[in-house]
Inverse folding.
């Protein structure tokens, strides 16, 4: 059974949805870094930060689901 990093690499190379989720997750992380670079967050920034964090978590959950499905398919074959 391939290790977790090998599975991630395989999905990044061959699975469009996983690759798209990973890219969106990276963009969310970059936006959060921009917000954290500010010395003082406005109320809108704080709301956006919370929304991004929730969205980022949903992306990660879906990526983990795809990893589990792929791992189960690899074991089953």
């Amino acid at each position: 059974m391939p290790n977790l990093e090998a599975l991630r690499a395989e999905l990044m190379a061959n699975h469009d949805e996983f690759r798209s989720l990973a890219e969106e997750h990276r963009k969310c992380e970059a936006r959060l870094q921009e917000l954290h670079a500010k010395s003082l967050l406005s109320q809108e920034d704080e709301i956006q930060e919370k929304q991004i964090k929730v969205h980022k978590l949903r992306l990660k959950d879906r990526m983990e689901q795809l990893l589990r499905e792929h791992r189960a398919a690899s074991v089953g074959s």
